[in-house]
């Protein structure tokens, strides 16, 4: 059964503003936790809105990854996953995700899941939410590790170009 859309436009607009405020505060303070906390309502609403099998799965995994990311940051966990595995990126759902500090893997995975949600859904509100999550994932990566931010941006551009073709 389709979710009601009566107030969805207003909700998505408010969530866009909340995420933007979180991005600005988080980048200025170099605090990924602030960005995550301001993104949480968007992800929860995404979980509520999704209905398809793959999109429901992607939105729930997205929520789990966001919570784990917050816990890793709060606990101050730092682990060089790329060095440990001996690779600079991993393939997740057919997408190459840059690796580095374990705290960068979460938002990178979130960006991939947002792309999956955007591509596999027909709902404009789910796509809107996926776009918010995608952009905010970049802000989280930037606040965690600005160096890997450029690699993730290249991934986004490459995937975007493939979608246009």
Concise structural overview:
The chain has one domain.
Distance between the termini: 33 Å
- Rg over alpha carbons: 15 Å
| Strand content range | under 5%
Enumerate the spans where pLDDT stays under 50 for 5 or more consecutive residues.
none
Mean pLDDT: 84
Silhouette? globular
Write a structural description.
Helices cover 77% and strands 5% of the residues. With 165 residues, it is mostly helical. It has one domain. A hairpin with a 2-residue loop joins strand 1 and strand 2. Helix 6 packs antiparallel against helix 7. The longest helix has 23 residues.
Set out the fold topology.
Blueprint: H1 8-29, H2 32-49, H3 53-75, H4 81-85, E1 89-92, E2 95-98, H5 102-120, H6 124-144, H7 146-164
Helix pairs in contact: 1-2, 1-6, 2-3, 2-6, 3-5, 5-6, 6-7
Which key terms come to mind for this protein?
165 residues; mainly alpha
């Amino acid at each position: 059964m389709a979710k009601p859309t009566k107030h969805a436009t207003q909700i998505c607009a408010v969530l866009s503003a909340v995420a933007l405020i979180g991005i600005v505060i988080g980048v200025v303070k170099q605090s990924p936790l602030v960005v995550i906390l301001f993104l949480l309502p968007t992800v929860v609403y995404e979980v509520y809105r999704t209905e398809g099998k793959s999109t429901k799965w992607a939105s729930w995994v997205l929520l789990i990854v966001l919570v784990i990311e917050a816990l890793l940051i709060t606990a101050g966990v730092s682990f060089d996953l790329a060095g440990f595995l001996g690779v600079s990126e991993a393939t997740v759902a057919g997408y190459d995700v840059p690796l580095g500090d374990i705290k960068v893997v979460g938002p990178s995975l979130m960006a991939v899941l947002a792309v999956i949600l955007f591509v596999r859904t027909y709902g404009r509100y789910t796509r809107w939410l996926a776009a918010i999550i995608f952009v905010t994932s970049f802000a989280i990566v930037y606040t965690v590790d600005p160096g890997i931010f450029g690699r993730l941006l290249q991934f986004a551009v490459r995937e975007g170009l493939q979608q246009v073709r």
